[in-house]
Amino acid sequence: MAERSGNFRAQVRRSPRKLAKLGALSHRVASNSDQFERDLNTLFTLHEKRWGKQTPFMQAAAFHREFARQAFTRGWSRLWILEIDDRPIAAELGFRFAGSEFFYQSGRDPSFRDVSLGFMVLVHAIREAVAEGIHEFRLLRGGEPYKLRLATADPGVETYGFSRGSAARFLLASALAARGRSLGFRHILDRL
């Protein structure tokens, strides 16, 4: 927080106070499998309310639900719910693995337009991760403005390709060459 602008710090303090005027404000994380299932449904409901049914997340809902469940059984999922008077108004799903936490997806009630619900639940998740000894909180790909406000650095995205068979090796080499990374292209062609 000390590295952020005064405006940023003021927003972090102001948003919860503004929302608390509407009722009792609370954050909670899903802690058992029954609660996780209910909260996962809440995440999908709030995501759909905010962005609709046609987002890639909603279109692959079965995959995302199953992955989140499997991650929860391994202790990797962090599903935060922001409530007002025990009514869920925002949700944030993240994954914790290998000493890092990864923000993955969120949803929020669009009727609270005057309050930055997504920002609030994300800041809370970051604070909790730091309090629990996590040293890196990843916002994942995409250059959305809120990520630029929160991030201290952007290490970029690395893509790895593995191939099996000569046709696959050729396609991978072609893709690398098209991206300007022809390093190894000659080596791969020699192996075909």
Question: How is this structure best described in words?
Answer:
There is one protein chain. With 192 residues, the protein is of the alpha+beta class. It contains eight helices and five strands; from the N terminus they run αβαααβββαβααα. It folds into two domains: 6-150, Gcn5-related N-acetyltransferase (GNAT) (Aminopeptidase); 159-192, no CATH class. β2 and β3 form a beta hairpin. α2 (33-51) packs antiparallel against α4 (61-73) and α7 packs antiparallel against α8 (185-191). The radius of gyration is 20 Å and the shape is globular.
Summarize the structure.
The chain has 192 residues and is α+β, with helices and mostly antiparallel strands. It contains eight helices and five strands. Strands 1-2-3-4-5 form a five-stranded mixed beta sheet.
